[in-house]
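Researcher: Please predict.
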Amino acid sequence: MTEKTGTDIHALAVTFFSEILATEQMLRNRLSRVLPKGMELSHFSVLNHLAYVAEERSPAQLAKTFHVTRGAMTNTLAKLEWAGHIHIRPDWDDARRKMVAISPSGRQARDAAIRAITPLIHRMVDDMGGKEMRTLLPVLRDLRIRLENEK
């Protein structure tokens, strides 16, 4: 590999990750603006996950799923519990642990958030087109898996 090629690849990698970071920031901003009043993107993510898995999770499991610290997850869960969107109970098998489940109110809040973000998502998909989305998805998934395995 020549010096020029190495430099080109390095510049390409920097540009690639810069685009991903800029895209992620813009997507977070747009989604946050259309979410129901008082709901943060982290709240929606947790509610959506709990609705999808349809079973309880421990705070540690949720922190691992979302690649955040336990403290950050505890903060998010406290806000969701205060709003009545989740139930937190002691783990009957291990009193040191807690278990988290989505409440009926949380399911309604999650459904309202889905309704709020759906037009934005549809516009983005329509603008990009299905072919481009199908091309990008395996690349992004592969990058995510590589990052998860790198730890």
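Model: The CA atoms of residues 30 and 120 lie 8 Å apart.
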